[in-house]
Amino acid sequence: QVHLVESGGGLVQAGGSLRLSCAASGRTFSRFHMAWFRRAPGKEREFVAAISGGGTGYYVDSVQGRFTISRDDVKMVYLQMNRLKPEDTARYYCAFLRAWPQTPFDDWGQGTQVTVSS
User: Please, what's the largest Cα pairwise distance for the chain?
Assistant: First the structure.
C-alpha cells in the first residue's frame, strides 16, 4: 500500500524559505520518478517539480530558479523553496510519477500547508 507523508509547511513572509519533506513507501522508491504538486484554494492541483530516479530535476516555470527538488536513495523527497511569494500559498503534495515528468499515480497523502504572507 502506498503511503506518502508530507511535512515542513508553515507560515512564512514573502521572500522567506521553507523546506518540505516527503516520506514515500509502498513502491520500490529508487525505481520511480517523484514529484511535488500543489493546490491553492479554489484552484486545480498543479505540478510544481519532478525528480528522476537519477536525480534530474524539472520545474514549472513559475518556480524555476527558486525551488529545488532533491531525493535520497531510500524514501525521502525534498523541496527547498526560496524567495517565496504569496502566490506560492497552497497545500503541497508529493507523488510517485506514472510518467515523466508530470503524470502522477493517483495516490495522495494529507499534504502540508504553505502560507506566504505579503
Answer: 40
User: Residue 45 burial (CB < 10 Å; 0-12/13-18/19+)?
Assistant: middle
* pLDDT mean over 62-72: 97
CA–CA separation, 24 vs 83, rounded Å? 26
- Long-range contacts of 107-110, Cβ-Cβ distance < 8 Å, separation of 24 or more: 107/2, 107/4, 107/26, 108/4, 109/3, 109/4, 109/5, 109/6, 109/22, 110/5, 110/6
In this prediction, residue 55 has a pLDDT band, given cuts at 50, 70 and 90, of very high
Cell of 39: 493546490
Q: Return d(Cα 22, Cα 17) in angstroms, integer.
A: 17
* DSSP-based three-state secondary structure for 29: helix
